Amino acid sequence: MDQQKIQIFDTTLRDGEQVPGCKLNTAEKVEVAKRLEALGVDVIEAGFPISSPGDFGSVEAIAKVVKNATVCGLSRAVEKDITTAAEALKKAARPRIHTGIGTSDSHVIHKLRTTREKVVERAIAAVSLAKKYVEDVEFYAEDAGRTDNEFLAYVCEQAVKAGATVLNIPDTTGYCLPEEYGAKIKFLRENVKGVHNVRLSTHCHNDLGMATANSIAGVLNGATQIECTINGIGERAGNTALEEVVMVLRQHPDLAKYTDINTQQLNAISRYVSETMRVPVQPNKAIVGANAFAHSSGIHQDGVIKNRETYEIINPLDVGVDHSSIVLTARSGRAALAYRMKNLGYELTRDELDVVYAQFLKVADDKKEVEDDDLHGIAEYKQKVAV
Ligand code: KIV
Ligand code: ZN
Question: Does the keyword Amino-acid biosynthesis belong to this entry (predicted)?
Answer without folding.
Answer: yes
